[in-house]
C-alpha cells in the first residue's frame, strides 16, 4: 500500500487532535474535579496533614524532620539536640540545584549498595553515636540493642517514624535531659506507638514529631 | 506477629483482593471493547478528533493510528517542557534542557516514566498535570488497545480486521481509566496524599527555620501512575515520599492498583475468545511467577546479606519504616514484574540478590502480570512460542485458540522477543566500553555495572525504575535511554499488530483429539518454563557479572 504525504499529514493531525481533546479530559477536568472533591471532603489531608502546637504550625505529621541544635561556628554538620527524640538518619536528602531561588528539600535515598564501603562506615558511625548518646550511667546501650532503622536512611529521607524499639532506647536519655521521670516518658512512647493496620499491614511505629510535641507539653506542665 | 508473617499475610490479602476484583473488571472491559454503542461524551471526542469510530481497521491502519498518536504525544510533551519557562502556572520553574526534555517525553509516551529529573524542583503544575499525567492515561490506553487488537486477532475469523484504534483509545480512557483513577485518587487523599495547587510555600518546623514544601495535584497523578503501570513520581522519592504514599494501607492499595488492570485483562481475554479457562491458564502462569518472585525477594531481604546490612542488623537502608521489609518487597516485585517502575523503597540498597530479582523481573519481559496491555500481549507472545515448542516436540503443526502458528506467526513472535534483549545488551555493552558513561555510577565494582545494566533493562522494557545511584542526567544517558524506551515500546507493537493481523485472516481450525489443551495446568507449566528458559538463557551472562557476583560475594 502506498502512503501519500497528505495522508500522513491527515493522520498526524488526527493524532494531535486526539491528544488535545484527551488532554482536556485527563489533564484539566480530571485533576480539577479531584482537587475540588479533595478540598471539599478532606481539606486537612489534601493540604499536607499539618499539625499545630501552641497555635503554630510545626510541620506535617507525615514528613520527618531533623531535631538538631543550631549550627555552631565552623561546623558543617549540626549536632543532634538530645533533649528530643531523634528520627532516622537522612543521608539521602538533597538540596535543589535548579530554580535555586527556592530552598527546597529534595527527597531521596542514599542509593548506596549493600557492599558500599561508605555505607558501611555511615552505619557503623551511626551505631556508635546511638550507643554513645543513649547510654546513661549504670545503663549502657549495647550495639546489639540498636535496631536497624536507627542507623539507616529511609527511601524518601523524610521518614516520619521510628520503630518502638528505637524510641524505647531513647527514653532514659530523653528523661534525663529533660529532668522527667523515666516512667512518664515511657508512657508517652507507649501512647504514641501505632500498631500494624488491621493487625497485619505495615510495621509498628512511633511518629517522632507527634511524640516530641507531647514531650514539649509534658515539660511545660 | 513477626515481620515475615506480616509480609506473607499482606501478600495473601493482595491475592484475595485481586481474585475478587478482577472478575467484574475483566468482564466489564470485555464489554467495553466489544460494545457497538458510543457514550455521548465519546461522540463529542470523536467529533473533535474527526475520526469515525465504527470503521474496522486492518493491522497497518491500526498501527498507523498508534504511531501517529504517540508521535503527537512526544512532540507535544517535548514542547511543553521546552516552553515551561514562559508558561503561567509553572511556579516560575525554568524550561527543561533539550536532551532531558526528549528523554522525559519519550519516557512518558512509552509508558516507561523513567525520570532523569527531580520532580519537586524541575516540573511545575502545568507540565505535571497537563503533560505528564495525561500521558499516564493515554499511554496506558494505547497499551490496552494493542492487547485488545491481538485478542481480536485470535477471536476473529477471516476478516483481517482488528477494530478501530480511536474507539479503543477513547473507550480505554473514558470507560476504564478515568473512573478507576478517580476512585483511587479520592481513597488516597482520604489517607493523606496531598491534592492542592498551592505551589511552593513555607511551613513551620518543630525546631529551627521553616521548611519549603512543594504542593501539587499529587493524588490525582498517583492513582493513574499506579493504575496505568506508569510509575513516574511527583516527587523524586516516588512512592516512598510520605505525600505520595503515607500509610501502610496506601502502600498495599497502590500495589493493588498496579496489578489490577493487568490481572483483569486475562479475564477480558478469556471472555473475548469465548473461553474464560484460557484466561485462567494465562493468569496461572503470571501468578506462579509473581508468587515465586515475591517469596524469593522476602527471603533474601529478611536474610539481609551484605556488609552494610549486616552491620545495621536488617535491610532497612532505602526503606520506609511504615512499610517495613515485607511491604517493600511486595512493592519491588510488583513494580518490576509490571511495567510500572514506581518504587516505595530504593532497589539499589537491596541485597545483591534482591536487586537481581528486580532486574530479572523486568528481563522476563514484564509479563507477570505485566504492564497494562503490554503484559497480556507479552504473555500471549510467549504462549505462541510455548505452543510452538510443544508442537516441535510432538511433530504437529502448532495451534493456539484455533489459529495455526505457521512460519509467519512464529517469525513475528521471535522478532518481538529479540528486540528488548538486543537493545539492553548492546547499549549496556556500549556504555561500559566507552570512557565517560561509567563516571555516572555511584557504586563501584559489580554494583556499578548493575546500575548501568538496570538502567537499560528498565528503559528498554518500559519499566522506569532505577538503581538510582546512576546519574542519568547526562547527554549520553538521556539520549540512549530515550531511544531505548521508544524502540522498546513501539517496535514490539509493530510485531504484535502484524501477528494479530495474520491471525485475524485465518479461519479457526476445529479442536481435535490431537490439539494441545491450552486451558490446562500442564500448559501453564509449559508457559512458565518457556518464559524462564528464554529470559534465563538471554540474560544469564549479564546477570552473572552484576547482581549474582554481588549477591554471592556477600
TrEMBL record, chain B:
The keyword Lipid biosynthesis does not apply. Its main location: membrane. InterPro entries: KdpA. It holds the Pfam family KdpA. Keywords: Cell membrane, Ion transport, Membrane, Potassium, Potassium transport, Transmembrane, Transmembrane helix, Transport. The chain crosses the membrane at residues 61-80, 176-197, 252-272, 279-299, 374-394, 415-434, 481-501, 522-544. It is a multi-pass membrane protein. It is found in: Cell membrane. Belongs to the KdpA family. The system is composed of three essential subunits: KdpA, KdpB and KdpC. Part of the high-affinity ATP-driven potassium transport (or Kdp) system, which catalyzes the hydrolysis of ATP coupled with the electrogenic transport of potassium into the cytoplasm. This subunit binds the extracellular potassium ions and delivers the ions to the membrane domain of KdpB through an intramembrane tunnel. This is Potassium-transporting ATPase potassium-binding subunit. The lineage of its organism: Bacteria, Bacillati, Actinomycetota, Actinomycetes, Kitasatosporales.
Amino acid at each position: 500500500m502506498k502512503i501519500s504525504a497528505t495522508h500522513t499529514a491527515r493522520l498526524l493531525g488526527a493524532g494531535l487532535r486526539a491528544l488535545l481533546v484527551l488532554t482536556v479530559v485527563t489533564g484539566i477536568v480530571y485533576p480539577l474535579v479531584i482537587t475540588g472533591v479533595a478540598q471539599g471532603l478532606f481539606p486537612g489531608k489534601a493540604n499536607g496533614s499539618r499539625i499545630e502546637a501552641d497555635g503554630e504550625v510545626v510541620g506535617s505529621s507525615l514528613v520527618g524532620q531533623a531535631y538538631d541544635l543550631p549550627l555552631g561556628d565552623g561546623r558543617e554538620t549540626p549536632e543532634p539536640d538530645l533533649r528530643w527524640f531523634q528520627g532516622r538518619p537522612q543521608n539521602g536528602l538533597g538540596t535543589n540545584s535548579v530554580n535555586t531561588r527556592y530552598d527546597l528539600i529534595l527527597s531521596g535515598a542514599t542509593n548506596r549498595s549493600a557492599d558500599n564501603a561508605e555505607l558501611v562506615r555511615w552505619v557503623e558511625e551511626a551505631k556508635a553515636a546511638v550507643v554513645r548518646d543513649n547510654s546513661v550511667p549504670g545503663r549502657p546501650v549495647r550495639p546489639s540493642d540498636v535496631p536497624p532503622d536507627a542507623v539507616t536512611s529511609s527511601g524518601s529521607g523524610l521518614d516520619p517514624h521510628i520503630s518502638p524499639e528505637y524510641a524505647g532506647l531513647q527514653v532514659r536519655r530523653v528523661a534525663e535531659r529533660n529532668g522527667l521521670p523515666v516512667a512518664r516518658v515511657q508512657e508517652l512512647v507507649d501512647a504514641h506507638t501505632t500498631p500494624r493496620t488491621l493487625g497485619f499491614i505495615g510495621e509498628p511505629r512511633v511518629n517522632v514529631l507527634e511524640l516530641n510535641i507531647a514531650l514539649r507539653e509534658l515539660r511545660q506542665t | 506477629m513477626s515481620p515475615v508473617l506480616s509480609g506473607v499475610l499482606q501478600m495473601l490479602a493482595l491475592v484475595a483482593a485481586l481474585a475478587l476484583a478482577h472478575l467484574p473488571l475483566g468482564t466489564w472491559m470485555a464489554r467495553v471493547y466489544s460494545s457497538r454503542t458510543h457514550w455521548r461524551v465519546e461522540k463529542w471526542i470523536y467529533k473533535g478528533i474527526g475520526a469515525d469510530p465504527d470503521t474496522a481497521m486492518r493491522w497497518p491502519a491500526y498501527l498507523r493510528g498508534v504511531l501517529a498518536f504517540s508521535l503527537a504525544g512526544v512532540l507535544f510533551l517535548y514542547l511543553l517542557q521546552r516552553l515551561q519557562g514562559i508558561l503561567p502556572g509553572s511556579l516560575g520553574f525554568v524550561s527543561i534542557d533539550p536532551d532531558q526534555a526528549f528523554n522525559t517525553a519519550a519516557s512518558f509516551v512509552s509508558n516507561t516514566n523513567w525520570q532523569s529529573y527531580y520532580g519537586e524542583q524541575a516540573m511545575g503544575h502545568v507540565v505535571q498535570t497537563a503533560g505528564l499525567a495525561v500521558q499516564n492515561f493515554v499511554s496506558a490506553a494505547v497499551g490496552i488497545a494493542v492487547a485488545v487488537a491481538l485478542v481480536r486477532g485470535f477471536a476473529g475469523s477471516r476478516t483481517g480486521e482488528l477494530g478501530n484504534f480511536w474507539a479503543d483509545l477513547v473507550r480505554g480512557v473514558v470507560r476504564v481509566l478515568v473512573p478507576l483513577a478517580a476512585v483511587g485518587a479520592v481513597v488516597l487523599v482520604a489517607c493523606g496524599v496531598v491534592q492542592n495547587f498551592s505551589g511552593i510555600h513555607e511551613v513551620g518546623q518543630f525546631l529551627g527555620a521553616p521548611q519549603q514544601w512543594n504542593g501539587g495535584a499529587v493524588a490525582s497523578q498517583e492513582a493513574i501512575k499506579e493504575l496505568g503501570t506508569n510509575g513516574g513520581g511527583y516527587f523524586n522519592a516516588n512512592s516512598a515520599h510520605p505525600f505520595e504514599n503515607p500509610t501502610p494501607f496506601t502502600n498495599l492499595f497502590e500495589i493493588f492498583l498496579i496489578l489490577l488492570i493487568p490481572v483483569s485483562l486475562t479475564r477480558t481475554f478469556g471472555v473475548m475468545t469465548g473461553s474464560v479457562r484460557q484466561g485462567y491458564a494465562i493468569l496461572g502462569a503470571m501468578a506462579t511467577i509473581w508468587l515465586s518472585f515475591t517469596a524469593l525477594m522476602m527471603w533474601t531481604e529478611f536474610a539481609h546479606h551484605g556488609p552494610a546490612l549486616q552491620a545495621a542488623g536488617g535491610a532497612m537502608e532505602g526503606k520506609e519504616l511504615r512499610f517495613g521489609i515485607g511491604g517493600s518487597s511486595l512493592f519491588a516485585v510488583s513494580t518490576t514484574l509490571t511495567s510500572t517502575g514506581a518504587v516505595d523503597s530504593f532497589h539499589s540498597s537491596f541485597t545483591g540478590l534482591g536487586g537481581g530479582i528486580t532486574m530479572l523481573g523486568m528481563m522476563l519481559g514484564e509479563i507477570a502480570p505485566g504492564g497494562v496491555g503490554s503484559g497480556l500481549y507479552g504473555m500471549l507472545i510467549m504462549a505462541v512460542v510455548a505452543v510452538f515448542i510443544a508442537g516441535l516436540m510432538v511433530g504437529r503443526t502448532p495451534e493456539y485458540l484455533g489459529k495455526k502458528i505457521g512460519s509467519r506467526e512464529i517469525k513475528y513472535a521471535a522478532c518481538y522477543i529479540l528486540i528488548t534483549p538486543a537493545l539492553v545488551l548492546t547499549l549496556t555493552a556500549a556504555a561500559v566500553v566507552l570512557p565517560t558513561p561509567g563516571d555516572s555510577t555511584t557504586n563501584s565494582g559489580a554494583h556499578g555495572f548493575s546500575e548501568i545494566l538496570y538502567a537499560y533493562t528498565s528503559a528498554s522494557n518500559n519499566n522506569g525504575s532505577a538503581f538510582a545511584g546512576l546519574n542519568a542526567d547526562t547527554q549520553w544517558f538521556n539520549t540512549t535511554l530515550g531511544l531505548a524506551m521508544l524502540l522498546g515500546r513501539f517496535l514490539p507493537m509493530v510485531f504484535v499488530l502484524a501477528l494479530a493481523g495474520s491471525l485475524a485472516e485465518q479461519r479457526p481450525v476445529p479442536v481435535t483429539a490431537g490439539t494441545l489443551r491450552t486451558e490446562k495446568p500442564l500448559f501453564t507449566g509449559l508457559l512458565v518454563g518457556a518464559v524462564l528458559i528464554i529470559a534465563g538463557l538471554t540474560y544469564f551472562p549479564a546477570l552473572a557479572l552484576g547482581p549474582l557476583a554481588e549477591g554471592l560475594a556477600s
